[in-house]
């Protein structure tokens, strides 16, 4: 927890390392260092990415996705439920089609305040009729049909989620050549 009593979140999904990127971008690693909790909504693909994230992050809450093999499934749940600063958070990789998502998820996760999900690589920030907030950070490494790669940051303070921001991943500047 930060000095101010707030919990800083980094929310990512669909990192697909090493299939879509050789490694997570430096910008994402800086965000990991600044976060109190990293939430990963699946499709890691590589166990080494989980190991690195657990070594560098203060805390990781993660689930496996449809592209994750038995090694990741042995270490991660399909659904994670955690309470952070009075906010009940659920994490899952897939939620099905966009049509009817809010109603479907509100029924499936009645005890959650926030549902983090991935899979579609499409950013999502909506609220269901029952107050469930649904968040999809897209992917920090795989644009797919989107214009840019992204992740989410957010803050939990006074028992509420706030300051949710979709952050664009900038391409890292080329490293200087030694000559």
TrEMBL record:
<dbReference type="InterPro" id="IPR029052">
    <property type="entry name" value="Metallo-depent_PP-like"/>
</dbReference>
<dbReference type="GO" id="GO:0016787">
    <property type="term" value="F:hydrolase activity"/>
</dbReference>
<dbReference type="InterPro" id="IPR000979">
    <property type="entry name" value="Phosphodiesterase_MJ0936/Vps29"/>
</dbReference>
<keyword id="KW-0479">Metal-binding</keyword>
<comment type="similarity">
    <text>Belongs to the metallophosphoesterase superfamily. YfcE family.</text>
</comment>
<dbReference type="Pfam" id="PF12850">
    <property type="entry name" value="Metallophos_2"/>
</dbReference>
<feature type="domain" description="Calcineurin-like phosphoesterase">
    <location>
        <begin position="8"/>
        <end position="156"/>
    </location>
</feature>
<dbReference type="InterPro" id="IPR024654">
    <property type="entry name" value="Calcineurin-like_PHP_lpxH"/>
</dbReference>
<dbReference type="GO" id="GO:0046872">
    <property type="term" value="F:metal ion binding"/>
</dbReference>
<protein>
    <recommendedName>
        <fullName>Phosphoesterase</fullName>
        <ecNumber>3.1.4.-</ecNumber>
    </recommendedName>
</protein>
């Amino acid at each position: 927890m930060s000095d101010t009593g707030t919990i800083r979140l980094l929310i990512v999904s669909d990192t697909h390392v090493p299939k879509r990127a050789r490694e997570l971008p430096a910008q994402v690693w800086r965000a990991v260092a600044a976060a109190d909790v990293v939430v990963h909504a699946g499709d890691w693909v590589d166990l080494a990415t989980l190991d690195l994230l657990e070594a560098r992050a203060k805390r990781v809450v993660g689930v496996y996705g449809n592209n994750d093999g038995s090694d990741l499934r042995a270490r991660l749940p399909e659904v994670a439920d955690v309470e952070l600063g009075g906010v009940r958070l659920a994490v899952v990789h897939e939620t099905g089609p966009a049509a009817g998502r809010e109603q479907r998820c509100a029924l499936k996760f009645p005890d959650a305040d926030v549902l983090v999900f991935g899979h579609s690589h499409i950013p999502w920030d909506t609220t269901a009729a029952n107050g469930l907030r649904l968040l999809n950070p897209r992917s920090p490494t795989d644009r797919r049909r989107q214009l840019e790669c992204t992740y989410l940051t957010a803050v939990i303070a006074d028992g509420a989620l706030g300051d949710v921001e979709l952050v664009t991943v900038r391409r890292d500047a080329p490293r200087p050549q030694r000559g």
